[in-house]
Design a protein that fits this description.
3 helices; 8-stranded antiparallel β-sheet; 5-stranded antiparallel β-sheet; 298 residues
Length: 298
């Protein structure tokens, strides 16, 4: 009796067909798994990038002087109050920022008690037309911190005060259209004196006829977020800082740093005193795929 030890032709064909079917679906399964992995990686990366961008912008915007926010269509175009900046043509968001670092006193060398470098209070019963008295303010520390943050480019003599509650004019009060040559604007250019708790005018005009309010905020720089469009909807978001509009400084005079690349959309709007921003980032790997993040800043 003979014992069969080899495949018949039909069995061999059957095996080949089965292996082909398994191979076909196996390759498709691996391709789909790899594609899902790539899209998941891209999606996570875009989410991280867009969230990083909006959080960085929000961290600056939350310490804005709210009435100072403007928009521009280009870096050199005329300023428009944010409330009037409707439409998608605006690529520049600009504002004056409060010196929150100095107010927190984080440069205080006494580690057990971080006192404000500037107190935010004016003694209305003290001072005169030539000087403002701010109890518990230390202008030497304010000067040192501004110098550190600006890489020694500026100091307290380049700063300005904003009186909370004062009437403001967005076009003329902050220096968006040129240096303030008097003390009639929203910003009041100041400089230090020999006394640590005194401010005096830095533009040669005293405080005569000015409504002085008890509470103030100190600012030493404006900020701007600029969207620079690129090819294939892949633009760049850039942060500008370290310039003083009330002293004639322009956005182009400031330092700049890239916040995010591969940005397809940067939009913003104002609802009363609330700001909303949106950043959409896109990928180099997938055409016309972007992911957006929004943030509301009070």
């Amino acid at each position: 009796m003979k014992k069969r030890t080899a495949f018949t032709m039909i069995e061999l064909i059957f095996v080949i067909v089965i292996m082909g079917i398994i191979g076909k679906f196996g390759v498709e399964f691996l391709a789909q798994a790899y594609e899902s992995f790539i899209f998941s990686k891209i999606n996570n990366e875009l989410q991280s990038n867009s969230e990083t961008a909006v959080e960085t912008i929000a961290s600056r915007l939350q310490y804005r002087i709210k009435d100072s926010v403007i928009a521009r269509t280009t870096k050199i175009s005329a300023p428009v109050a944010i409330a009037d900046a409707t439409g998608s043509n605006y690529k520049v968001l600009e504002w004056v920022g409060v010196d929150e670092d100095g107010f927190r006193g984080i440069s205080d060398d006494n580690t057990s008690a971080y006192l404000p470098n500037w107190s935010g209070i004016i003694d209305l019963d003290a001072g005169d037309k030539n000087r403002l008295i701010s109890p518990q303010t230390n202008t030497a520390k304010v000067d040192a911190m501004i110098s550190d943050l600006s890489s020694t480019n500026h100091g307290v003599d380049d700063a300005a005060l904003y009186f909370i509650g004062a009437n403001t004019n967005i076009q003329t009060g902050y220096g968006w259209n040129g240096a303030l040559t008097n003390q009639q604007g929203a910003m009041h250019p100041i400089k230090k004196t020999a006394n640590a708790n005194e401010f005096t005018s830095s533009n040669g005009v005293d405080f005569s006829g000015i409504d002085i309010y008890e509470y103030y905020q100190l600012a030493w720089t404006a900020y701007a977020i600029v969207y620079e469009p690129g090819t294939n909807h892949k633009g760049t978001l850039r942060l500008y800082y370290d310039y003083q509009p009330w002293n004639g400084g322009k956005l182009s005079d400031g330092k700049s740093a890239i916040l995010m690349e591969n940005v397809s959309t940067f939009q913003f709007m104002s609802i009363g005193s609330i700001m909303k921003i949106q950043v959409c980032t896109t990928s180099d790997l997938v055409e016309e795929y972007s992911l957006c993040k929004e943030k509301t800043i009070f």
